[in-house]
Amino acid sequence: AAGKRVVEAYDSKAEDVKKNVLLDVANSCGPEILALENAIHNPSLVHEVREAATPVHFRLLQSIGNLPGGVKVVCDMRAHLLYLMKTESDKSIVAALHRLERSAHELLVLWFCQSNMKLERLTWQSPGDILQKVADYEAVHPVQGMMDFKKRVGSYRRCFYFSHEAMPREPLVIVHVALLNEIANNVQSIVECDHLDCAEDECSTAIYYSITSAEPGRVA
User: From CA 104, how far away is CA 108, in angstroms rounded?
Assistant: First the structure.
């Protein structure tokens, strides 16, 4: 219930409102200090030190992740936290935001383990919304129109993306590969290449020439 209320409060178009929600969570949902001190000074409670030291906002973010679309929300929150930490001049605010960002980071490391990731190939026949997102997210070699993008997923090209089971229609990492009959001297020649004088199955070389992390809040 608390996680849902935070999401509802954070789901605002006003930047200052979103920032205040994150600050409130960061400042009011830290470790349970009294329980931690009690566990530290009581040998019989030593096994409870870790639980008491875990910030309340860690469990709060965990509950948000369990909501429909919640993993994406936590990713967006972490991306926002990273942005605020770079632009905020008040060091005390940055410190508070950093503590919340660490909790988000730790959870995302757990959620985005390899077993939860799926590698898929993108073709011109893939769902339109995913094609559009891959085209929009491409950061290394921006797509120059529909024909350019069609070439990147067509003959002598391969495009793959990683998705997460909780975000199945969100390309998280995008990799573009070129099939060639020799190792290229430079990336530009790969990008500009329109055709080869051999069949695809005769290509001897596969070169990935672009990799984009499409989710700023996701951990590497």
Answer: 6
Phi, then psi, of 119 in degrees rounded to 5: -95, 125
Three-state SS at 102? helix
Residue 91, both tokens: 């060091």
Give me the domains of the chain, ranges plus CATH numbers: 3-113 (1.20.140.90), 117-213 (3.40.630.150)
The partner residues of 118 in beta bridges, in order of sequence, read: 163
Angle subtended at Cα 219 by Cα 159 and Cα 215, rounded to the nearest 5 degrees:
50
The pLDDT tens digits along the chain (220 residues) read 789 999 999 987 788 999 999 999 999 887 776 766 666 667 666 667 667 677 889 999 999 999 999 999 999 999 999 999 999 999 999 999 999 999 999 999 888 887 788 999 999 999 999 999 999 998 888 888 888 899 889 888 999 999 988 888 899 999 999 998 888 888 888 877 777 777 888 888 899 899 998 877 766 5
Determine the longest span between alpha carbons in the chain, in angstroms.
76
DSSP symbol at 13:
S
Given a contact cutoff of 8 angstroms between Cβ atoms, the answer to whether 56 and 30 are in contact is: yes
What 3 state SS string does 138-182 have?
A: CCCCCCCCHHHHHHHCCCCEEEEEEEECCECCCCCEEEEEEEECC
